[in-house]
Design brief:
With about 575 residues, the chain is α/β, with parallel strands linked by helices. Helix content is about 25%, strand content about 20%.
Length: about 575
């Protein structure tokens, strides 16, 4: 019997496990995917390895670096990559989601969850998106933000060429520089992110080799953060602070947390005690052997992410609640790219190229409360080319871009035109648009009534932006194009991504609808939720993970006060 079972070890699960373990509770974490860099699983994609691990000394930096080799397909292929949504055994199919629209759902299984691939941007929510909308105030969240920011830790990102160029364009557009954490007004600033500051050896040209640098503490500015970061002297000091290298080592350090990878929770067990329905355990399936077993706990925390948390609720036949799975937001993203001339870059940056892959992937941002945010995004050539192909509009040659548009080209690039844009990749700057999209209960997760896999009925996912969300997205796309033009871009592309690009999924098990303000389910006592799904809204268009983590710290306190004090 455990004090707490936490299901999922990603953005939220790892944090709550550490917080509860630190307070002396015995915590078992069940994680559906593999564990990279733990010596109990020396070949995590080839055989079942050990059963569980609870010792910091099991983490092995040599193994971690060997597995996170930054090869694009090997790491990121959504079907067969190490960072896919599927079982550790990559010869098996990925786990199926039923999506009836153009979409890409980007979730990663494994210890660390989707933070393994995240770009570690850690802004706080916009206060105006919380105050008067959530059942507690922004001010109440601040101490929890501060705690997580200190522990990850969060810093303002270092500037490389792409950030400098972005700041130049934003300032020429008349935007204010606002290097603050609590954002009330529009302005641009360095990205608050969970990436260690660059190692000083890069800056003072001390002659260290790239290999030596990779074994030192601090960011190498090598870029490609999405492929997984292998840079650091030990697992717990890796530069990009995904939860598998930040909160998981801290959880193990408490001596109270045990983690089982390759363990897919298929049912939440409940009992009626003293005339209330309580969570009493979890039925779990070993993804290598298919064996199922029942595990008991005094409290259960769901942290499976915004799709699997409602799916597990529904597959467990928990009480009917019309809001379970409803209200999905995704920040209705878009992608705007500018191409610059060499001579302009020389006069602004003193160099011929931007080399957008260098540095923190998203090192600068422009916040616009009420609309959302813009972020510089320097991806590898492969990912950049694939993102150029994503468009709701169809191919670029079928579009008539109105002459008053801020961009020159719209749509998906292909053929020789795509090749031409890729030839200019070293002189390109791309901006990700994240929109303050509205919660709409038509959007979300339901169960397919017929189709199931080994883990239960599969989730059906729908997201369509509302008219208001679309209008905000177009305004932000125009703003991004204006920043690029002011920075000197000679041509600008608006990709117009399909609204089904799901990278920031939130709000499918909302506070005030499915869980109370302590994040305990209204209808099932001792069942808590600690992932993006509890967000009341999309935080104003701001990256979601820091808020999930701050809430997880708060929820751990509530669990202890309510059941273990
Ligand atoms: C490319 C990319 C870049 C991103 N960049 C950023 C960024 O810069 N900043 C930011 O704030 N956000 C970013 N995000 C989003 C960020 O990754 C998520 O906000 C965050 O990981 C969500 O945390 P979570 O706990 O809700 O879900 P997850 O991190 O997905 O964790 C859920 C975990 O639960 C496990 N699980 C699911 N179902 C079960 C089950 N039934 N049994 C056992 N285990 C289960 C999963 O395997 C997973 O490990 C990015 C996402 C992507 C894809």
């Amino acid at each position: 019997m455990h004090d707490v079972i936490v299901i999922g070890s990603g953005g939220g699960g790892a944090v709550i496990a550490k917080e509860l373990g630190e307070k002396g509770l015995k915590v078992l974490v069940l994680e559906a995917g593999p564990w990279y860099g733990n010596q109990k699983w020396p070949q995590p994609n080839l055989d079942a390895g050990g059963k569980s691990s609870s010792a910091l000394t099991d983490l092995n930096i040599h193994l971690y670096k060997e597995l996170l080799n930054k090869e694009e397909m090997n790491m990121n292929d959504l079907v067969t990559g190490r960072f896919r949504w599927g079982p550790a055994d990559r010869s098996k199919a990925q786990w199926f989601r039923n999506i009836k629209q153009k979409a890409m759902i980007w979730q990663t299984a494994g210890v660390g969850g989707t933070t393994q691939v995240y770009t570690a941007n850690c802004p706080r929510a916009y206060p105006h998106a919380i105050d008067g909308v959530w059942p507690f105030s922004y001010k109440e969240l601040v101490p929890y933000y501060e705690k997580v920011e200190a522990e990850l830790p969060v810093h303002f990102a270092a500037a490389t060429a792409k950030e400098e160029l972005f700041y130049y364009g934003a300032s020429r557009l008349g935007m204010n520089f606002t290097p603050v954490l609590d954002v009330q007004w529009p302005g641009y600033r360095p990205q608050p992110n969970a990436i260690l500051p660059p190692n000083q050896a890069i800056l003072n040209s001390s002659g260290v080799t790239d290999e030596q640098l990779s074994w030192m503490e601090g960011c190498t500015l090598a870029g490609h953060c999405i492929n997984g970061c292998p840079h650091g002297p030990s697992v717990d000091k890796i530069a990009k602070r995904s939860t598998n290298v930040s909160y998981i080592p801290l959880a193990l350090k408490t001596g109270n947390v045990c983690i089982r990878p390759n363990a897919f929770a298929v049912k939440i067990l409940t009992e009626t005690i003293d005339s209330e329905l309580r969570a009493t355990g979890v039925e779990v399936r070993n993804t290598w052997t298919g064996e199922q077993e029942e595990l008991r706990a005094a409290t259960v925390v769901l942290a499976c992410g915004s799709i699997e948390s409602p799916r597990l609720w529904l597959n467990s036949n928990l009480p009917k609640n019309q809001f379970v799975g409803k209200g999905l937001v995704t920040h209705n993203m878009d992608w705007i790219t500018g191409i610059f001339d060499e001579k302009d870059l020389i006069s602004i940056l003193g160099s011929r190229e931007i080399r957008p892959f260098v540095g923190n992937t998203c090192g600068a941002r422009l916040d616009y409360p009420g609309l959302g945010a813009l972020q510089t995004t320097g991806l590898s050539p492969g990912l950049t080319a694939s993102f150029y192909g994503l468009s709701e509009s169809g191919y670029y040659f079928n579009q008539n871009v109105p002459s008053k548009s801020s961009w020159d080209v719209e749509g998906g690039l292909a053929g020789p035109f795509l090749r031409k844009w890729m030839d200019e990749y070293p002189r390109s700057l791309s901006i990700l648009v994240t929109t303050d999209d509205e919660v709409d209960e038509q959007n979300g997760v339901t169960l397919d009534p017929l189709l199931s896999d080994e883990n239960g009925f599969v989730p059906v996912i729908r997201y369509k932006a509302t008219k208001k969300s679309e209008r905000k997205q177009i305004k932000l796309a125009g703003l991004a194009a204006d920043v690029l033009k002011k920075a000197g871009a000679k041509k600008v592309l608006r990709s117009n991504w399909p609204s089904g690009i799901m990278i920031h999924m939130e709000s499918t098990m909302r506070i005030g609808r499915v869980v109370d303000s302590n994040c305990e389910a209204y209808q099932v006592k001792r069942l808590y939720i600690a992932d993006n799904s509890v967000h009341v809204n999309g935080l104003g268009g701001v990256n979601p993970t820091l808020t999930t983590q701050a809430l997880a710290v708060r929820t751990a306190e509530k669990i202890i006060e309510t059941y273990f004090s």
